[in-house]
Amino acid sequence: MGLEYMLKKLGLAIAVGLLACSLTACGTARAESTEDVAGNLESAISAVEGVSSVNARHKASIGMGSTVSVRVTAEPGAVLDSVLNDSLMAFAGASDGISSTAAVSFQVTEDGQQNTIAPDAIGLQKSPTVREVRDFANGQ
Fold it and tell me: Quick one: signal sequence residues (predicted)?
C-alpha cells in the first residue's frame, strides 16, 4: 500500500498542478498594452479622408486570443465603401502589435445616419482576422 499510495498521490498532485497552469494561461494577463495598440489604430484611421471619428478597442489575453473592435464615423456625404476600404488599409498598417489571428469587428457609419457597413461590403468576411485584413491590404 505504501508505494502504490504514494504514486497515486504524486500523480494527483501533478494533475492538479497542470490544471492550475492551464487555467492561469487562460487568464487575463495582457500580452501588451492594449491602450497603446488602440491609440495607434485610432491615429492611423483618423487620418483617412472622410473619417469624422474613430473608436478602437483591443483586448489581448494570453491563452484566450485577441479581439479588436473598430467603429468609424464617416463625415456626412462621404462614400462609405471608400472610407471602409481606406480605413482597413490604415488598420493593416497600424496593426503591428496585434496577433494575426485576432478577430476584427469593424464598422463604418455615416455621421447622423443609420446606415452601417462592415468588411463584407467590400469582399472580406463580416468579421475577418487581422491576417485577412493585412492580406486584403497587401493585395490592393
Answer: 1-31
Cβ partners under 8 Å of residue 140, min gap 6: 85, 89
Cell for 139?
493585395
Q: Are 62 and 99 in contact (CB under 8 A)?
A: no
pLDDT digits (tens, 9 = 90+) for 41-56: 999 999 999 999 999 9
Contact 63, 25 (CB under 8 A): yes
| H helices present in the chain, as ranges | 2-25, 34-46, 80-93, 130-138
C-alpha cell at 108: 463604418
pLDDT per position as a tens digit, 11-25: 665 766 554 555 444
Look at residues 121, 135, 125, 128 and name the one whose alpha carbon lies nearest to residue 68.
128
Structure pTM?
0.75
d(Cα 12, Cα 61) in Å, to the nearest integer?
29
With vertex at residue 123, the alpha carbon angle to CA 121 and CA 126, rounded to the nearest 5 degrees, is 60
Closest C-alpha to 53, from 78, 32, 21, 30: 78
Please give the Cα distance from 139 to 137 (Å, whole number).
Answer: 5
